[in-house]
């Protein structure tokens, strides 16, 4: 059977458990990063290679109904795999921030727009600043806008 359109949970158990809890409770539980109390959202992407459905918790960085998706992965030297999923299938991205997921359009932030969203991201989740110091790569930021 093809993997296409099948959900493939993250191989990291703490991540797949968070997604499962969030979805089962419509965002009422599993809605923060561990015990930090800082809110998260779940994004759904399509695997660049497999075509499988991938679900990824990210910190909630929201401003006037738009969201930043910060590909920080704790300041690791490489981009997270979901970054490449976004590039490969930008038309198939959803966000869940509460009970129901919704479709979004995405664009990678550059220049002044990136600087503005980076500030918002660090305000929402201050460790992003440390993650950027830890790595030589520029941490990518996508902006996601709800599709009407
Ligand atoms: N990560 C962030 O980057 N930013 C955040 O703000 C963030 C917040 C956060 C909050 C809560 C939480 O539970 C996790 C959080 N994370 C955050 C971690 C995040 O959820 C991801 O786990 C992390 O960014 C790593 O993403 P990843 O896509 O690299 O995940 C790896 C471990 C993974 O799932 N690998 C899969 C595997 O099987 O090894 C492959 C997944 C995949 O999409 N494969 C593609 C495909 O085609 O299916 C392509 C495969 C390829 O090789 O290209």
Automatic annotation (TrEMBL):
Pfam family, one: F420H2_quin_red
InterPro entries referenced in this protein's UniProt entry, alphabetically: F420H2_quin_Rdtase, Split_barrel_FMN-bd
Catalysed reaction equations from the record: oxidized coenzyme F420-(gamma-L-Glu)(n) + a quinol + H(+) = reduced coenzyme F420-(gamma-L-Glu)(n) + a quinone
Gene Ontology cellular-component annotations: plasma membrane
Any one GO MF annotation of this record: oxidoreductase activity
PANTHER family: DEAZAFLAVIN-DEPENDENT NITROREDUCTASE (PTHR39428:SF3), F420H(2)-DEPENDENT QUINONE REDUCTASE RV1261C (PTHR39428)
NCBIfam families, A to Z: hi_GC_TIGR00026
The family this protein is said to belong to: Belongs to the F420H(2)-dependent quinone reductase family.
Name of this protein: Unannotated protein
Native source organism of the sequence: freshwater metagenome
